[in-house]
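ok posting inputs for the zinc ion job
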Amino acid sequence: MAPRIPAAVGERLAKLAASGGDVADLAAFVAIPSVSAQPPHAPDVRRSAEFLRDRLRKAGLTAEIWETQGHPSVYAEWLGAAGGEAAPTILIYGHHDVQPPEPLEQWGTPPFTASVRDGRLYGRGVVDDKGQVYCHVLALEALLQETGRLPCNVKLIVEGEEEVGSAHFDALIEKKKERLRADAVLVSDTPMLDRDHPSICYGLRGLAYLEIEVAGPDHDLHSGGYGGGVANPGTALAEILASLHDKRGRVAVAGFYDDVVRMPGRERKAIAKLPFDEAGWLKTVGAPAAVGEQGWTTLERLWGRPTCDVMGVMSGYTGPGAKTILPSRALAKISCRLVPDQDPGKVASLLQAHVRKVAPAGVRVDVRVLHGGKPWRAEPRHRVFKAAARALEAAFGKPTVFIREGGSIPFVRTIADILQVPCLLVGFGLPDENAHAPNEWLDLSNFRKGTLACVGLYAEVAACIRKSPPKPAE
Ligand SMILES: [Zn+2]
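and the output
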């Protein structure tokens, strides 16, 4: 048992795991279909917030619902640490909403009935993010019930709109920032590198999402009667999309890379040393080859380089057989994943200017910005990261690795900017656990090690903060 984990707490969690009580407990949470994207499920998202609030109260924290203009968040706290307000405070983040379960026919067992098969728990939200929230719930409960206290003050914010872009969450955070004050933030919503490596994520990409509409004639035309007489929006859009990259896979939009902070050599060396199984990764992807911007490895491209990708294209007739029409319009969805210090608003403007410049004659183009989020990166050499790595190593019995993540968690950048404290992204999911897809699953041994790791994390991070107040994160 790791020195930071009280024996009684370790025993309690071991007993809970042996009886399956932890899984039954989580199953009740999973049973609530808190699908934030689908309006008919709005009452369920509220129900899951209430369930979690009550569960956190049972664990020994004070808890309440925080309303937003959209789905509600849950806030809980325990502020009884020795030293009171002067004691270190950790803010934990997670989300209780889930992705839609469709297509239902591809699930082996019903998505909202958590089922155990071969050491895995299946169900929507088991890993993203209800199971990871539960690691904290069970860890906090075990500490409070067995020792009557936590090693530091703990605040917990669990949002209800993460899967739909956190539209109202920034406003909530801004309004509640005094209540949320903390010395470090702990987020459990990212995957581990692989089963053998507990991981701390120190970087997330941002996002700029746009829609390009190309309009030609005001209605579809007979391609025999009119083809060759006017510009074809489908062809024009293809020309625009083809202009987005050069032959070396670089984004060919003027100014796109101006604010990109180049990955330092030491970071590239560290990434090269990670035990990344590229062949295995490619197998799970199912593509013939790993391809992208030249001069960078696959992990570097996924974590530290920006992209400009087509998400969808629509134009003309796409049904069976042949239909001879010249389409009146064409539409493409474009997503740019951003890295520090790119700004989503600026990138969107650059894209708009580029499309206007390259659009061929005879069509009208409209580029609409749908949404955006800023990238984030912390300094992994900060002592708080080292402290967290120790706690993970103790719980997993394996060395901790430092990774970045190609996706986005809007909350992280927001809270990092507001609180100016280190954010630790410590997740217990695996990359192939089908988050967002049918048959989402959670490795039960990671669920349990993750819970144990949380117990150690609170203590290690608190001790580290107490020794010397952390400098602001990058
Ligand atoms: Zn998530």
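notes: The chain is about 35% helix and 20% strand. Residues 95, 128-129, 162, 189 surround zinc ion (CB under 6 Å).
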